[in-house]
Amino acid sequence: MHEAYEVTHLLNASVQIETIAAYDGNLLLGTRQGHLLMYSLLMNKDTQKYELKMIRYCKNFSKKPIQQIEVIAEDKLLLCLTDNVLSSYDMNGLNFPLVKTFSDTKGASLFALDNKSATSMTGESNTIVHLCVAVRRKLQLYYGKNGEFKKHIFDFTIPDVPKVMALGQQYLCVGFKGEYTFFDLSSHNSTDLFPPSSSKSLDPTIAKYSETSFLLGRDNTSVLVEEAKKKSSEIKKTMKRIDDPTISKYSESSFLLGRDNTSGEVEDAKQETVEIKKTIKWTDAPLAVVWDEPFILGLLQDTVVVQTVEPPLFIQTFVELNKARLMYRCKRGLIFVSSVGQVWCLTSVDITKQRKQLLKDKHFQIAIDLMKLSDSSPEEKKQTIDSIQMLHALDLFDSKQYSQSMKEFIKLKTDPAEVIKLIPELDNKFEGKENVLKGKDLENALNALIEYLVELRFQIGTNTEGSSKSESNQRNVAQQLELIDTTLLKCYLQTNDAFVAPLLRLNNCRLEEAEKTLHQHGKHSELIILYQTKGQHTKALQLLREQASQPDSSLKGYHRTKNYLQHLGAEHLNLIFKFSDWILKEHPEEGLKIFTEDIVEVENLPRPKVLDFLLREHDTLVIPYLEHVIHTWNDTHDLFHDALINMYREKITDKKANCTEEELQHIKSKLVAFLEKSSHYTPERVILHFPNDTLFEERAVILGKLGRHEQALAIYVQILGDVDRAIRYCDNVWTRNDKTVDVYVTLMRILVNPEQNNSLTGPLATVPRHPKASTPDLETALSILEKHADKISPIKALSVLPDSVPLARLSSFLESALQTQLTMKRRTQVLKGLLYAEHTQVQEMKQFHESKSIVINDYNVCPVCKKRFGNQSAFVRYPSGDIVHYSCKLDK
Amino acid sequence: MSSRKKVLLKVIILGDSGVGKTSLMNQFVNKKFSNQYKATIGADFLTKEVIVDDRIVTMQIWDTAGQERFQSLGVAFYRGADCCVLVFDVTAPNTFKSLESWRDEFLIQASPRDPDHFPFVILGNKVDLDNRAVSAKRAQQWCQSKNDIPYFETSAKEAVNVELAFQTIARNALAQETEAELYNEFPDQIKLNANDNNRNRDGDNCAC
């Protein structure tokens, strides 16, 4: 059992004790006979017990009983109520000489004191005393400083004579026979709370709990009442009446009120200005209540009971304090109790000893509260408190309050490694150890741990941003994150594996451990993500390859591999080649997308290398690839254009290829179209590979690109026999602005003089000619001449035509040619006239300017350098008329 | 039952700094745009009432700091979100690349019940600018690969698609909300705690 206090019997008095007070280690007794006794509490070294040593005995202090005494230790002042008048006395004087009698207080029955030491800005220490005196049906307020008291103008008028009073910060709490009332010291409003008892007549008790709360006695309980932070005017409306009063101060913002055994919270408490926080139960109605943090002591019939408020726990009982009726708290851990003839003291048990017992009993909060009050150094205090909280957190964990426990760990900033160890399942070396968590418990523990880890990783993430970015610090953070995320991974695998993928992508997990765990759980898909983020591409791809053929695998098929390869990028080109191989073989069309998908990484792959790879390993895909590169990506590199042409050509000429006629035609048309459209291939190089016995049309197109129109036209006419094509060819050349070349004349010459044409030389010379080509086709030549008269030079045309052509056949051509010549001549004449006119205008202008003269003499000064013009100096005249030195002009 | 209840949707906007999160929110709520850039510190929220299928819902839109050093909100802030809006700048490819980690980070922090089906919406902002670097097709492709996240091309400056995008956000968030209600129905019916409390109080009051 925990022992918070020890009781010592101190005194058997021959006098009748009426009231007691204490300060520091001193006890004052006021008697019915009007004596005042002062003792000092000492520890007897021999018996190790407390003893009282009388210091003063003032027999003639008063003629009447001493009703109440209080000490203002800082001012060495004693306040005493006797004969219904309050007076102050000097403590320094031997027989307590009278300082002042509060003359206004005649008829007083009770007073209450509240003093605070304050250090002013000048460094002086002042005691400010609030004093309240109950004089018949009035409450007088005094304000004291350095032993001087001033009375407030305002008095409270009250309905009854008060039994007990306590001063808080904002409120004065008064216990009457039938009611507890709060008086607001600033607004002077009053609020009735509840009576001290619902049934019998009980004296009220008040204990100050804090500056804003009090413990008020109500029947067999003490009620903790706290000032709320609202305007006092609202109190009246909202506070609900209950019934009989025991008041004693609990702390600076609440009172304890006596109440029935079974008290509950006051209804409607939520909207009030005065809030009822708690009730503490006693076995009987308390005579007096004292708050000695963290304990509340109640004086019951012949016994003192010690309890705690938060959490409410029964601690200790002291019995056989016969007829005790007064209780006075001297200082922390020292309380005096007295009956009419006897005095006891309750002294706090050594805190270390208490703590040990409390920890054994698992009363962590009380242990912490006690520790906060101890006299140890702040560092030691913090350390001890932390260790207690740690024990608390561990205890919460053991009692399966995982979430609470984790919250404590967060507050304590416990090393996460320690916390994680609490769940042995997460340890890799764990093999059937004892104290295993099972089923629902394990799930709850894991969920709590997840919440903890997530909170922690957030804190780490934000803290590092602000703090110093030293290298060791960053490494430390990285290690912590690694631990947290690796553990999170294990948790998620057991609770909700949908989080595994996002977690892995954030890339903080430890590779080996994560790999092992994922393997254990058969999470292949997630393993791939792990490998990917960790750059273990070979492992990932090998796993994908293995899983691709597993019929029940989540990674079945080629899609994941394809996807993976598409995101690898240029630096892993060899891996891409290595692992794309099987897809390209089994699913060529889809596989090609590894190199053609619209993804940045794919588009940025080195295309020549890809082309080379495809040529070597998968030549059937070369054409689709090149078509994509050229038509979709609009690559203009001649390498691809040349290669595509070569591929088309090879496909057409390859005898072994089993192409149907239709396919062949399709490719041929593509080839021709491409040859015509593309301007990025190198015709010189391409043409070398073209066969001499076939693909004449294509060759013609290439020759055209090379500007060898005569050869091209010769192929059209003489080999293919397609004159229309030849004409169209000429049209194309003409419209391409190549007007200097006489393509039409060339065509005519070939048509008229097939025999004399030697353009088809070399290997083409032996190619069989088209049957039509051997006979001269004068008619066609003439029709071309007529149709394109404006595009053909008449002299060249005439030189081509044989002499046998009748003039009449040429009349229209010649006329139109003549017309053209005439038009040209006239236009030239007009132009000549205009130019001449312009010429004379310029000449006139020149004469005008030359006719101007200027005179420079000694009075002329250059506006720039302010000097005269010397004999030989060159000068410049501006259009404005200003004259400056030539050198000055240059300066500008 | 649920349709009578007043609905508050918590929407969180995430994305790299300078992609226009604050501007989008301001355009949607206040119909205003400013060319001046001011980094968001911590987070800020605005509310707006919208009508989704004849229901009035209040959207509480949380704008966050894109720069890590200005992020001050804890894990609790992400919890209880009904929809997460991820924003990138179509002229800055890096902000597009970051989407994945914003999404993953959000999921870990928020721990929604069903992470695979938590509603996200992607906004490609600043389409009014000429120097575009992320094609719509590419963004669309990425969204499709992530469980078909809705994608919108927006311009906070010219109010392009902003209204439409937030309408979708509200709709998807609402769908999520109703789904969550279904999950909760069971515990709601039991009300163990509430009854216990009442009984205790009654006991206290009458056993005097």
* CATH topology descriptor of chain B: Rossmann fold
The CATH superfamily of chain B appears as: P-loop containing nucleotide triphosphate hydrolases
Helix content of chain A: 40-55%
State which percent range the strand residues of chain A make up.
15-25%
How far the N terminus sits from the C terminus of chain A, by CA atoms, comes to 106 Å
Tally of extended strands of chain B? 6
> What's the Cα radius of gyration of chain B?
20 Å
The helical percent of chain B reads: 40-55%
The succession of helices and strands of chain B, N to C, reads EHEEHEHHEHEHH
Largest sheet of chain B: 6 strands, mixed
Mean pLDDT over all positions of chain A: 81
Structural key phrases:
heterodimer; A: 892 residues; alpha+beta; 4-stranded antiparallel β-sheet; 30 strands; 24% strand; B: 208 residues; alpha/beta; Rossmann fold; 6-stranded mixed β-sheet; 7 helices; 41% helix; globular
Detailed description of the structure:
Chain A is α+β, with helices and mostly antiparallel strands and 892 residues long. Chain A has a domain at 544-614. In chain A, 41% of the residues lie in helices and 24% in strands. Chain A has 29 helices and 30 strands. In chain A, the strands form 8 sheets. Chain A has a 4-stranded antiparallel beta sheet, with no helix packed on it. Chain A has a 4-stranded antiparallel beta sheet with strand order 2-3-4-5, with no helix packed on it. A 4-stranded antiparallel beta sheet of chain A has the order 6-7-8-9, with no helix packed on it. The radius of gyration of chain A is 56 Å and the shape is elongated. With 208 residues, chain B is an alpha/beta fold. In chain B, β5 (120-125), α5 and β6 (151-153) form a beta-alpha-beta unit. The longest helix of chain B is centred in the last third of the chain and has 29 residues, at 162-190. Residues 185-192 and 194-208 of chain B have low confidence and may be disordered. The chains are: A alpha+beta (892), B alpha/beta (208). Chain A binds chain B through residues 198-199, 219, 260-265, 450-451, 454-455, 457-459, 461-462, 465-466, 488, 496, 498-499, 501-503, 505-506, 598-600, and chain B through 68-69, 71-72, 74-75, 93, 100-101, 103-105, 107-109, 111, 114-116, 135, 137-138, 141, 200-201, 203-205, 207-208.
